[in-house]
Design a protein that fits this description.
The complex is a heterodimer of chains A (about 400) and B (about 375). With about 400 residues, chain A is mostly helical. Chain A has one domain: Formate dehydrogenase/DMSO reductase domain (Formate dehydrogenase/DMSO reductase fold), CATH 1.20.1630. Chain A contains 14 helices and no strands. In chain A, helix 1 packs across helix 14 and helix 3 packs antiparallel against helix 13. Chain B is rod-shaped. Chain B contains nine helices and nine strands. The longest helix of chain B has about 100 residues. In chain B, helix 8 runs antiparallel to helix 9. Chain B has about 375 residues and is mainly alpha-helical. The chains are: A mainly alpha (about 400), B mainly alpha (about 375).
Chain lengths: ~400, ~375
């Protein structure tokens, strides 16, 4: 089913393309503003609120939602679940793009982006969890890049190099899981340094564990969600195996995600009990906390389980979207909403339109690049010359 | 000039790196060491009861640090009507608090013994010097602002309006002046002795002496003695510290200790995960192989069994067929003989008269055949 020629040449000015074009132009303007007038001109950040949605959404959510890469490749290559094989490539591609965009977004947020290699090559602040995050993201981005190269090599017809990289699959996968464990958890641990600023319902000694565990079901839900989108828009690019296996992948991940989310709920309750924070549940913050935990973890977990039992793909897809939203909510709660909860409302942060615009711009770049790659390289189908079975 | 706590927390990270690169590092994950600050390091004691809110310290700070002219001149006390914090070009502020009579308190970097900013910085742009000052190296800073997230006192500020060279700014305890043997600008300028410079240990003793000597004037607390592991800047006050905008819920755990746990988990993960994951892989691989072998064995057995069965069936069938064939042959032979006999009889009957002997002869031979 590898259709080599795209039919899109005839219709370049579709509504989608026009919207994408507008977003890219606006993004370019915002980029110029950011690098000529500074963060102050574009963002609502201030001395009390040094991190906004470029960290809370672009970095924290970006990394969590790109977890599909390590989850899927580990399921297929380490745990030997071969039926996930057709899902590995799209997951690796989205993970690679996700991480690349995270790093790209960081260039907007940090003051002197050309110094981003400093923590690794110039002055290593090893006492900082951000150092660990930086090092792991740098290494993992490299791993993801190498993991994705076989698709590009197949596209370019470089058989020998492809063969070498394919042989490294297991080592790369294990390295990827180690690095993911470390930086996914460290992103949560970043906030452990500020117990006086983060609301007690979200602050916990288990923050790194919460971030790591939630990244697993975030990744799985994202794989299901992306596959839903890909089926709608890139169906003609998929081969028989991908079509055959994708429902199995969705149901398999639904079942796994349901279990992990239940475990996550359990450890959240453990954290609540250990710090004895039950009394906060009766407050407004408590309600918000419960909305996050019940509405966006417990409910989708049950929906996943039901979807799996009744083989109802719609349930699974709805649950996946809810879970993804829940992850976004959780990361925003920790980095922005429940952070600096003690400050008077006048001193609280709310993103500016230009900040939101930049984030939309960056997500759009991701979609455009994904579409470019998936319509050209063997991602959703196996290259006929390199069939595995 | 790194401090020991930071150094050993750093070692944990280094151990992680070491593991990754194959080198060996020392990890002191679970130490119960308590860092009490560099011996003979300096500090400042702020006696809040003596502060009159004249803003002379702010003015001096502005001058010695070559900061830009303020929007509101320092002798204009109307700024006290609003609550202020440190800013990119304001390293210290005096705030007035509603109390009878008014209470004034100065705010600036507290120069933690184990600074959160320094522990949080991923390029080591902050250093706690032996003199007690926490200083910042602009040449390393990436501008990630994690130090501002980490600081429990909300002190570091950022030059948000510089496009390409923004710095994090904060009070340096006038470190350059300390090296020259001078007092910090604010201390030198204070007309009421609300700021006392000295060795931290001695200031601490002096602070407690004041509290014991005038128990009616002071609350029973030296702020900064233990807060966040202790700070070089110390405070004594007549009203509770939360009333003068200082948080009393910070706890006594230093910032590096707060993140020591997750950092010490790094080398464990780096060491264990590859083993566990390779094990998982081996188990799943082995399971696959065993399943395959079992399948092959089962198939072979089934084939053998069915072959044997077929053979048996075939044999039985062959035997049966042979028997039936023999029976059929015998039957046919018998039938043929009977027919022949009958025929012979008939012929005999016909030829009875002319040849009677021949008939009896053939009849005898049939009897023998049977």
């Amino acid at each position: 089913m590898a259709v080599e020629k795209t039919q899109s040449n005839t219709q370049k000015f579709t509504a989608t393309n026009v919207i994408i074009g507008i977003i890219l132009v606006v993004g370019a303007i915002l980029t110029i503003l950011r690098f000529t007038k500074g963060l102050g001109a574009v963002t609502n950040l201030d001395n009390n609120n040094p991190w906004g949605i470029w960290i809370g959404f672009d970095l924290l959510c970006g990394v969590a939602l790109a977890a599909g890469g390590y989850v899927t490749s580990a399921a297929c290559y380490v745990f030997g679940l071969k039926r996930y094989h057709s899902a590995v490539r799209p997951a690796i591609l989205t993970a690679f793009l996700g991480y690349a965009l995270v790093v790209f977004a960081l260039h907007y947020d940090v003051g002197r982006p050309w110094r981003l290699p400093y923590p690794i090559f110039v002055s290593q602040g090893t006492s900082s969890l951000l150092f660990e995050v930086g090092l792991c993201v740098f290494l993992y981005l490299t791993v993801l890049f190498i993991e994705f190269t076989p698709a590009a090599f197949e596209w370019l017809g470089l058989k020998k190099i492809r063969q070498i990289v394919v042989k490294l699959t297991l080592v790369l996968t294990i390295f990827g899981v180690v690095l993911s464990t470390l930086h996914q958890s460290s992103l949560g641990a970043l906030f452990m340094i500020a117990p006086s600023k983060l609301h007690p319902l979200w602050y916990s000694g288990y923050l790194p564990v919460y971030f790591f565990i939630s990244s697993m079901f975030a990744g799985m839900s994202m794989v299901i969600f992306e596959s839903t989108l890909a089926h709608r828009y890139l169906s003609h690019k998929m081969d028989h195996a991908h079509h055959e296996e994708s429902h199995g992948v969705a149901f398999g991940f639904a079942k796994a995600a349901s279990f992990i989310m239940m475990g996550y709920l359990a450890i959240k309750i453990v954290g609540l009990s250990i710090d004895n924070n039950w009394n906060y549940l009766a407050t407004g913050w408590g309600l918000w906390f419960l909305i996050e935990l019940v509405g966006f973890v417990a409910f989708p977990a049950i929906l996943f389980a039901m979807g799996f039992r009744e083989k109802n793909l719609m349930f699974v897809r709805i649950a996946a979207v809810l879970t993804v939203l829940g992850i976004v909510l959780n990361r925003l709660n920790i980095s922005i909403i429940a952070f600096n909860y003690h400050l008077p409302s006048a001193d609280r942060y709310f993103p500016s339109l230009m900040e939101i615009g930049t984030s939309v711009f960056i997500v759009t770049i991701g979609i455009v690049v994904y579409r470019f790659v998936a319509t050209r390289m063997p991602v959703l189908y196996e290259h006929p010359d390199y069939k595995t079975h | 000039m790194a401090i020991s706590r930071r150094k050993f927390i750093g070692c944990i990270g280094a151990a992680a790196l070491g593991n990754a690169t194959g080198a060996l590092g020392k990890a002191y994950g679970a130490s119960n060491k308590h860092f009490k600050g560099y011996p003979d390091s300096f500090g400042v004691l702020h006696d809040i009861t003596k502060c009159i809110g004249c803003r002379k310290c702010e003015s001096a700070c502005n001058a010695v640090n070559d900061l830009p002219e303020p929007r509101v001149p320092f002798d204009d006390l109307s700024v006290l009507d609003t609550r202020r914090r440190t800013d990119a070009d304001v390293f210290t502020v005096v705030n007035r608090f509603q109390h009878e009579p008014y209470v004034f308190a100065k705010k600036q970097c507290n120069h933690c013994l184990e600074p959160a900013c320094a522990s949080a910085c991923f390029v080591k742009a902050f250093t706690k010097t032996k003199q007690g000052a926490v200083i910042y190296d602009e040449s390393l800073c990436v501008g990630c602002r994690y130090c501002m997230v980490a600081c429990p006192f909300d002190v570091p500020a950022y030059e948000y309006h510089k496009a390409l060279t923004p710095r994090v700014t904060k009070c340096t305890m006038c470190y350059p002046r300390l090296l020259e043997g001078k007092l910090p600008g604010c201390v030198e300028a204070c007309p009421k002795n609300a700021l006392v410079f000295g060795k931290r240990d001695e200031l601490l003793k002096y602070a407690w002496k004041r509290i014991y000597a005038y128990p009616d004037q002071y609350t029973d607390h030296v702020y900064g003695e233990h807060e966040m592991g202790g700070t070089s800047w110390l405070y004594i006050s007549g009203v509770s510290f939360s009333e003068v905008g200082m948080r009393e819920d910070l706890g006594i755990t230093s910032a590096p200790e707060l993140t020591a746990g997750p950092l010490s988990a790094v080398p464990i993960v780096v060491g264990l995960w590859p083993v566990l994951l390779t094990g998982m892989y081996a188990i799943s691989k082995r399971k696959d192989r065993i399943a395959q072998e079992e399948k092959a064995a089962a198939v072979a057995e089934t084939i053998a069994l069915s072959q044997e069965e077929t053979q048996n069936k075939l044999d039985a069938l062959r035997e049966k067929m042979t028997r039936e064939k023999t029976a059929a042959i015998n039957f046919e032979v018998k039938k043929a003989l009977e027919e022949a006999e009958k025929e012979a009889q008939e012929t005999a009957d016909q030829e009875q008269k002319p040849e009677p002997e021949a008939g009896s002869d053939s009849g005898e031979s049939i009897e023998e055949d049977k």
